[in-house]
Amino acid sequence: MLVRRLPFPVVAAAVFGLLSLILASLSGGLSESLINPDEGGHYVNALFIGDWIRAGFPSPMAFAQDYYAHFPRLSIGHWPPGWYLLEAPIFAVLRPSPYGALLIAAFVAGLPSGAIVWAFDRIGHRAIGLILALTYVFLPLVVDGARYLLLDQPVALVVAVAAILWANASDKPGWTRFLLFAVFAAAAPLTKGNGALIALVPAIDIALTDRWRLLKQPALWVAALITVALVAPWYWFSFKISAGGFNYAPGLEYAGLSLSANGTALLANFGLVGIALAIGGMVSAFRPGDAREMRVARLSIAVAAATLIFQAAVPAALEPRYVTPLLPWLTVLMGLGLLNLWRLHRHARFATPVAALAAIAPAIAALWVLPAKPDIGAPALGRTMAREGGLWLVDGRAGGEGALIAAAAHADNGEKRVWISRASQWLSTSDFMGRGYTLTAQTPGAARKILDEIGASGVVSAAELDRYAYPHSRVLWGAAKGDGYTFTEWGFASGKGSVLIARRNLQVEPNLALIRENSGSVNVGKMKTALR
């Protein structure tokens, strides 16, 4: 059987991936509407590549510009293409819905647990590794990551695989092992920008293990050159696009903020006892004894340190989920801390299970109060827009807009019968991150003039908690409830909120020239500039 031929950590990772999927479902996290601000973009990016393959590999940029005109949530450039390319066969063959893509994401969220199983399998404590991997799946950041279609769990997985490959290459140097590491080291930043932290792991690990002789290995330097050659062209191309996502300036002030924020995130996931156990596990990296345990501890420290250093140096944002790549390795250190506590003294063995329970208490407490995700009913709305065709103006918080665009892109099934435009781009101005927001359509009359100008067939606007998403949303609701439109309001499928659906009474043709130019899109302009 195939399962018997696979390494045990791989099989275990798949099992914990299924557990992660089940946990996301039981916690009310599998909403059919991709409500997080980034989810719609990730879905459309993967669907775009799948549709590009299905279309027979036409000119990429021309296809992208046309795709953006139809579904303006395409954001490859702001995010790298690595994970979308990996998903491309699935999207090209199966063309999963946003809900189907979320199921895949929930499964992937549990896969980094395989690194924990690998670590403890290596030191001869497989059962402990399985228990710790189970603990990992219940960590708040992992549970939350399984409920959203984001890149944090994929990059944690790729970084984990790359770290294991580095350990193998540095333990037994050889061309094949170093080149395999190079491939996954390149894949990490091509999955998500903070995956570049993997570049720090070899340097920290060499310093911890005192293996300076590795620097004399030609294969190491060739691997480094291959990694740079694979990664650098993309970031050279996309820097003008992605730089707009940086919310801070680099420096000591940001580094302090980052370490404080990330420390708070780790405390929320592991608690004081879990952090103390992880520090106790670091002792294994420097105490003479089991060489295998020492190796695992040093690798875990290297990945954890690389994550914190990278986050402190690169001023992207202060998001708890950005520390996700170190979670498997901190869990390994916590497990080593439990082993060290058990070995400390025979009386300490009574304290070990108590400490273990105290370490997982924050995770259980967070899971207990985890609310169900809201569902704006995006699939039905997407089918309505795709069925009726023409141009639809969608509105809502960033997540609401993204959910509607993703649903419409799936429902359109590659036919390009529907064009979606974002109300935030036509009735207001701001940058990609929503900064510098300015209302440009001050009245319902001004909004109706824009609707006429672009040839909008209808409007869909989501109001979470029954509040207008933005100032322009109030103006849009006023315009859509005026003469010339027939409107209805739906309640959210789950959660508090309502959706306005307004259809124009008379048929109108979309202004394709204006839509394709889409002067409200900052990113399209940057793409064009980058390609000149």
Structural class: alpha/beta
Compute the average pLDDT. Answer: 91
Distance between the termini: 53 Å
**Integer-rounded radius of gyration:** 25 Å
Number of H- or I-type helical stretches: 24
Strand order of the largest sheet: 2-1-5-7-6
From the spread of the alpha carbons, the general shape counts as elongated
Low-confidence stretches: 519-524
What's the topology here?
Elements: H1 2-5, H2 8-26, H3 39-54, H4 60-70, H5 82-93, H6 98-109, H7 113-122, H8 126-137, H9 140-146, H10 152-171, H11 175-191, H12 200-209, H13 218-242, H14 252-282, H15 291-313, H16 327-344, H17 348-368, H18 378-388, E1 390-395, H19 398-412, E2 418-422, H20 423-426, E3 428-429, E4 438-439, H21 444-454, E5 456-464, H22 471-480, E6 485-491, E7 497-504, H23 512-517, H24 522-530
Parallel strand pairs: 1-2, 1-5
Antiparallel strand pairs: 3-4, 5-7, 6-7
Helix pairs in contact: 2-6, 2-7, 2-8, 2-9, 3-5, 3-19, 6-9, 7-8, 7-16, 8-16, 10-11, 11-13, 12-15, 13-24, 14-15, 14-16, 14-17, 15-16, 16-17, 18-19, 21-22
